[in-house]
């Protein structure tokens, strides 16, 4: 792999210990570099989180979780984790360095593997997974990209970045993690994974090793996920007839749709694999040993020697040669094979022996042909060859499928089922499944698609978000966007409305629809809190606690709210969502009033004029006697006329002397 000259990490010393030398690979979460541990003087692989993710606490937690999960495992078939830390703003993970290739590289170069090679890789991967499962760790991302084949013949499983403890394995409300081609049905439908989910992914990987292809393909990830959740993985022998029946059964056991029907963990499957391996290799032990023989060092010359060079990095492939890990497994390109050292006998002696053996081989050939003809007659007459393999009719017309079954000596029968992936009127599959071998004159049911399954959506408005989501997914519909808004008429956490994603049609009252429907939800955040009469600090804390932004606005007079406190919050027009900005209106206290000139007015008129403006009065109560009401006048006010006072202030009145 070429390394960009501008990569700033090349040559950098991390944490005063790890000298970065070259880049190995780059993923969505981190970049892996080849580095030298200056303290222990050894080469290591150092995984550095991308800079734009360093500020995201969720990614940091997941990155550290990978280190802790892998560090808990000490097993020959698990990539060792040596160290984890942070240098400035850069989080890193130090791992064992393994020159070699990945299983994905091997499958890309060679298509498919032999049963013996598949068993060798399976035994190593299951051993590593068994250690993880025993430690309470679920890998959650088993796939060929995470199986490393080292140049020295070691096979290790890596990348515990999605690993999680068994007692904390739910993924509700989060995007599904892992590669869609290897997701178990329970992860697709319920977002839940345990050790049996790793077993399912390993079963899919085994199918791929034996056949060179994945069991499910589709134009969109949702189509592949639907097949995982609703279809049965076919037997590898339906794609490659030479696959032993024992491996067929192992794959079907590991990929059962119901987790209860699978091995409960990797240890159980590993024990069964040993029995399967003995059956598959029975009678071919010598060949099996040869298939994994390591080439002598003297014969690894030229391009093969480059694999031991320092530039061979984790997961990399040499452009001009077959990877050394493939050699260790006994895999050779078409037309080539392992190099055997030449015999040291005399060439003339060899030719003499060949002439003597020629007559024997001619006689043996005649006997062999006779036996083959007899065996062929038995095989197709009364042996296993008389059975018929059910073809693959997916997406074919029922008429074409019926015609082909009839030609094969089978009896076609039509059946039906709903399907979200196969158009109405076309074939979904057969019963027995594709690849099954059945006797001639057997009845085979052709399952024809009836299109999307009708569903009855219940009334959603008023339900809690959790109840509405469960009702939607239980009907094989999909929850689309969730829009939380403030609404004082609907309780917090309950649905205000629901709509159809495709055209916006209102689904609040439910109705008749079809599976696969995507429903968008509008959920209430409750009413906006009332902050009238609160201090600015109190009002700000309350509103920010509801994920609202707050700014101070105009100040105005208030007869009821103390100066400096909040009169109210101005709410923007339209729908209010979390993050909206509210403006606080602040009180300036009561509005000032100017004391009018009531001096010379009659006592009664002067009092009325002042109380009408909101002033409170103090005076000699005797002045209110009826006998004086028409005789006395206002002599003076304190404060005097023209003075500005807050509304509700007290003014002292002095009456005139009625007797002069």
From TrEMBL:
Q: Which UniProt keywords are present, listed alphabetically?
A: ATP-binding, Kinase, Membrane, Nucleotide-binding, Serine/threonine-protein kinase, Transferase, Transmembrane, Transmembrane helix
Q: Which domain of life is it from?
A: Bacteria
PASTA domain location is: 385-450, 522-588, 589-657
* Protein kinase domain span: 18-277
Which GO BP terms sit in this record? negative regulation of fatty acid biosynthetic process
Entries under Pfam families matching the protein: PASTA, Pkinase
First-level EC class = transferase
Tell me what reaction this enzyme catalyses: L-threonyl-[protein] + ATP = O-phospho-L-threonyl-[protein] + ADP + H(+); L-seryl-[protein] + ATP = O-phospho-L-seryl-[protein] + ADP + H(+)
Q: What is its EC number?
A: 2.7.11.1
InterPro entries for the chain: Kinase-like_dom_sf, PASTA_dom, Prot_kinase_dom, Ser/Thr_kinase_AS
What are this entry's molecular-function GO terms?
Answer: ATP binding; protein serine/threonine kinase activity
- UniProt key word Protein biosynthesis: no
TM helices/strands, residue ranges:
360-381
Entry annotated with the keyword Transmembrane helix: yes
What NCBIfam families does its record include?
PknB_PASTA_kin
What is the recorded name of this protein?
Answer: non-specific serine/threonine protein kinase
User: Could you tell me the gene encoding this protein?
Assistant: pknB
């Amino acid at each position: 792999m070429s390394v960009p000259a501008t990569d700033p990490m090349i040559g950098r010393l991390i944490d005063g210990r790890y000298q970065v030398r070259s880049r190995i690979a780059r993923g969505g979460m981190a970049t892996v570099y080849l580095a030298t541990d200056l303290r222990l003087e050894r080469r290591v692989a150092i995984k550095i989180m991308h800079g734009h993710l360093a500020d995201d606490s969720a990614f940091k937690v997941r990155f550290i979780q990978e280190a802790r999960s892998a560090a808990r495992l000490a097993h020959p078939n698990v990539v060792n984790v040596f160290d984890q830390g942070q240098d400035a703003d850069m989080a890193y993970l130090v791992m064992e360095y393994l020159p070699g290739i990945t299983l994905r590289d091997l499958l890309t170069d060679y298509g498919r593997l032999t049963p013996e090679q598949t068993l060798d890789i399976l035994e190593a991967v299951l051993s590593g997974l068994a250690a993880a499962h025993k430690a309470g760790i679920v890998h959650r991302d088993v796939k060929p990209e995470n199986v490393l084949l080292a140049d020295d013949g070691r096979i290790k499983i890596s990348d515990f970045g999605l690993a999680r403890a068994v007692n904390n394995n739910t993924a509700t409300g989060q995007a599904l993690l892992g590669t869609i081609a290897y997701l178990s049905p329970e992860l697709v439908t319920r977002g839940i994974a345990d050790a049996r989910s790793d077993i399912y992914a390993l079963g899919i990987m085994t199918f791929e090793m034996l056949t060179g292809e994945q069991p499910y393909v589709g134009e969109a990830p949702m189509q592949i996920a639907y097949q995982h959740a609703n279809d049965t993985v076919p037997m590898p022998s339906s794609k490659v007839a030479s696959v032993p029946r024992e491996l067929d059964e192992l794959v079907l056991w590991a990929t059962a749709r119901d987790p209860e029907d699978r091995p409960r963990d990797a240890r159980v499957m590993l024990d069964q694999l040993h029995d399967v391996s003995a059956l598959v290799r029975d009678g071919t032990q010598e060949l099996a040993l040869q298939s994994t023989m390591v080439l002598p060092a003297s014969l690894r010359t030229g391009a093969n020697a480059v694999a031991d060079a320092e530039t061979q990095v984790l997961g990399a492939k040499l452009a001009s040669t077959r990877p050394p890990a493939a050699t260790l497994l006994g895999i050779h390109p078409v037309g080539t094979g392992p190099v055997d050292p030449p015999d040291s006998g005399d060439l003339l002696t060899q030719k003499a022996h060949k002439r003597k053996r020629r007559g024997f081989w001619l006689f043996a050939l005649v006997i062999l042909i006779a036996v083959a003809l007899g065996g062929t007659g038995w095989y197709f007459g009364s042996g296993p060859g008389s059975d018929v393999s059910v073809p693959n009719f997916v997406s074919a017309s029922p008429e074409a499928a019926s015609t082909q079954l009839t030609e094969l000596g089978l009896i076609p029968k039509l059946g039906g089922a709903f399907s979200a992936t196969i158009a109405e009127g076309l074939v979904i599959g057969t019963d027995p499944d594709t690849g099954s071998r059945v006797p001639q004159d057997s009845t085979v049911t052709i399952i024809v698609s009836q299109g999307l399954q009708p569903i009855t959506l219940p009334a959603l408005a008023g339900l809690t978000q959790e109840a509405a989501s469960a009702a939607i997914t239980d009907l094989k519909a999909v929850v689309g966007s969730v829009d939380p808004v403030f609404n004082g008429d609907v309780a917090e956490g309950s649905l205000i409305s629901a709509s159809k994603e495709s055209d916006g049609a209102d689904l609040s009252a439910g109705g008749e629809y079809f599976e696969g429907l995507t429903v968008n939800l509008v959920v209430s955040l409750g009413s906006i809190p009332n902050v009238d009469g609160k201090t600015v600090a109190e009002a700000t804390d309350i509103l920010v606690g509801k994920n609202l932004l707050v700014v101070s606005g105009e100040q105005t007079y208030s007869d009821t709210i103390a100066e400096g406190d909040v009169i109210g919050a101005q709410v923007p027009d339209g729908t209010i969502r979390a993050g909206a900005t509210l403006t606080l209106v602040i009180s300036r206290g009561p509005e000032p009033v100017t004391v009018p000139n009531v001096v010379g007015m009659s006592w009664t008129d002067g009092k009325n004029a002042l109380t009408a403006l909101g002033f409170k009065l103090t005076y000699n109560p005797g002045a209110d006697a009826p006998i004086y009401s028409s005789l006395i006048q206002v002599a003076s006010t304190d404060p005097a006329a023209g003075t500005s006072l807050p509304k509700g202030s007290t003014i002292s009145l002095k009456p005139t002397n009625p007797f002069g």
